[in-house]
Every structure is written in structure tokens, then in C-alpha cells.
Amino acid sequence: MQPQPIEYTEPVQYTQPGQSPTPDQYAQPATQYAQPQQPVQFAQPVQPMMQPGSQQVVYVTQEKASNKALPWIGVGLILVSLFLPYISVMGFGVSGFEMMGVVGELMDGVDTNPNSLDEDSGDSGDAFMIIGALMFMLSPLFFIFSAIVSALTLLMKKSPRIMGVIHLSYGVILIILGMLMPSESGISVFDFIGIGFYMGAFSSGFLLAK
């Protein structure tokens, strides 16, 4: 094996005859080894660390449970109203369920002769009385129908507001017709309407809750 030549960092200074060069005159360069390249790593986003004592505010959107319960309260009040008197005369009352049972008898007492209607066509008070009486007698049937439809709508996770508007409009129309009916001797039609009707008519306000 042949000896490798020596690389000098600085030129060797010639010496006088009989003198040998000093070690620093032929110092070899330090051998440096190339390090292999490291694979490139992509920096990942660093999530901010929560400092001790810091507060974090979290907003949670939650529908109030009371708003969901209000329509059910309206349905319950409508059903309860059917047990209360719709007609109240001197302490004698007729409940909504009893009123549905005697609707046929009350209808027989209404004069539906076409000739009589033609004769009384000029009296608007009688027309309001006939329309109001028919709507009032059918009110228990309409109210229980409204309660059933609203309950089914709520079970399907939907809002019964449309039914509530129709129900409330029915009650308001009846009140307006009652105000337009003629009164004799200071006696009004509202003197014969019981608390059951008012509860059944205006409990629909709970159905309008969002």
C-alpha cells in the first residue's frame, strides 16, 4: 500500500541545512465529514396553550324548554274547557261535551225556513244572531278538532301556529258577532256564555308560541 501524500495548510518554509522543519510547518488540515441531510419536516400549526387562570367563553345555542311546553299547555286547556260550562244561565250550566250532545236539539229550534229568511233579510241583527248561534253551537266540535290537530302537529315536531291562528280567529269572530247582536232590556248574549267557551277560545294563544 502506497503512502498518501501529506497536504499542508501553509507552504513549508525551507530551513537551513542541518535543521528539520517544526511540526506547525506541515500541519495537516482537519478532516471534516459531511453530515447526511435530514428530511424536511413541515411545521404543524401549534394550537395556543391555555394559560393558567385564563377563562374560555363557550356560547351554546339552546332552545328554551318553556317555549316547547306552551303549545301543549294550550292543547290541555282546550280539552279542560270542554268539561266547563259553555252556557251558563242563573247557575245552570251546559258543558262543552253536553253541548255537543244536544246540538241536534238546538238546531231544531232554529228557524231555517227559506221563506222566513227572505222576509227577515232586511234585518241584519237577526242575520248576525243566526250566524253567531250556529258558530257558538259548533264551537265545542271545532275546539276539540283544533286540539287534536295541534297535538298531532306537535308530535311531528312541527309548530301548530297555523292552527292556533285559525282557532283564535274563530273565537274573535264569535265575540264580534255577539257584540253586533241586538240586546233587549239590557240583556246581552255574553250574559249566557260560560267560562268554558272563553277558556277554549283564547287558550289558542299558547299555540302561537314559537
Record keyword descriptors for this entry.
2 strands; 7 helices; 210 residues; 45% helix; mainly alpha
Give the SSE map:
Elements: H1 65-81, E1 85-89, E2 92-95, H2 96-101, H3 103-108, H4 114-119, H5 124-155, H6 161-180, H7 195-202
Antiparallel strand pairs: 1-2
Describe the overall structure.
This protein has 210 residues and is mainly alpha-helical. The protein has a domain of 144 residues. Strands 1-2 form a two-stranded antiparallel sheet. A hairpin with a 2-residue loop joins β1 and β2. α1 crosses α5 and α5 packs antiparallel against α6. The longest helix has 32 residues. It is rod-shaped. The termini are far apart.
Oligomer: single chain
* Radius of gyration over C-alpha positions, nearest whole angstrom: 49 Å
What level of helicity do the residues show?
40-55%
The number of helical runs is 7
Q: Pairing-aware structural class of the strands and helices? A: mainly alpha
Strand content: under 5%
Quantity of strands, as a count: 2
The 3D shape can be described as: rod-shaped
The pLDDT mean sits at 74
The unreliable regions are: none
Strand line-up of the largest beta sheet: 1-2
What's the SSE pattern? Answer: HEEHHHHHH
* Most strands sheet: 2 strands, antiparallel
The span between the termini is 99 Å
